[in-house]
């Protein structure tokens, strides 16, 4: 059974998550849907009833759905960054490659430097975007349904697709040769997912 200290920390972390969600103007169901979770499941995290909320990978996934970071979650919690996690922060230095579905919050200074560009080489996403189109994507920002995304795989390959949905085991995307063709990608094969924020078509 968890001690009262751990229970209060879990509650504080859950309240911080709820505050971040409200700042985004999302319901629990809407936030959960972004990562393939029910609103009830999301609510258990906000109520401090899931101890896995202390895990850095879970924090990255939840805050990524809100366009934020685990650091933002810590700062939102009462007492700032006083709420502890199971792993030291040095386990994921800023210059290390991002693993899992991490995100950098748009509210932090320097967030604009996390916007990258990519030129499409094929027409497999037409008419959404054709060969020669330059896509700007926010590194690590989780996409909404129907939004373009850049998927970096663990084996080094990169795919540009339209996001459909995801759950714990896999994510489903569209655009593997045709916009009406779905593709399933195992979450364990994904290093990062980044939302496309603009398309710059050649004149």
Automatic annotation (TrEMBL):
Alphabetized Gene3D superfamilies for the sequence: lambda repressor-like DNA-binding domains
Domain HTH cro/C1-type: 17-73
Spans through the membrane: none
PROSITE patterns referenced in this protein's UniProt entry, alphabetically: HTH_CROC1
Residue segments, region Disordered: 78-104
One Pfam family per UniProt: HTH_31
GO molecular function, one term: DNA binding
Name recorded for this polypeptide: Transcriptional regulator
């Amino acid at each position: 059974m968890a001690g009262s200290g751990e229970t209060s920390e879990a509650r504080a972390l859950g309240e911080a998550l709820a505050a971040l969600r409200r700042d985004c103007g999302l319901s629990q169901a809407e936030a959960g849907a972004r990562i393939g979770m029910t609103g009830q499941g999301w609510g258990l995290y906000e109520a401090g009833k899931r101890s896995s909320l202390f895990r850095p990978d879970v924090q990255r996934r939840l805050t990524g759905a809100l366009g934020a970071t685990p650091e933002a979650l810590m700062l939102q919690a009462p007492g700032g960054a006083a709420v502890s996690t199971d792993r030291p922060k040095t386990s994921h230095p800023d210059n290390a490659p991002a693993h899992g579905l991490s995100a950098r919050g748009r509210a932090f200074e320097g967030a604009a430097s996390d916007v990258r560009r990519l030129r499409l080489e094929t027409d497999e996403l037409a008419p959404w975007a054709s060969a020669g189109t330059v896509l700007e994507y926010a590194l690590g920002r989780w996409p909404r349904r129907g939004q373009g995304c850049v998927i970096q795989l663990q084996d080094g390959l990169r795919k540009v697709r339209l996001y459909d949905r995801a759950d714990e085991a896999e994510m489903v995307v569209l655009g593997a040769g045709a916009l009406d063709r779905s593709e399933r990608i195992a979450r364990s094969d994904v290093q990062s997912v980044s939302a496309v924020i603009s398309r710059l078509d050649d004149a």
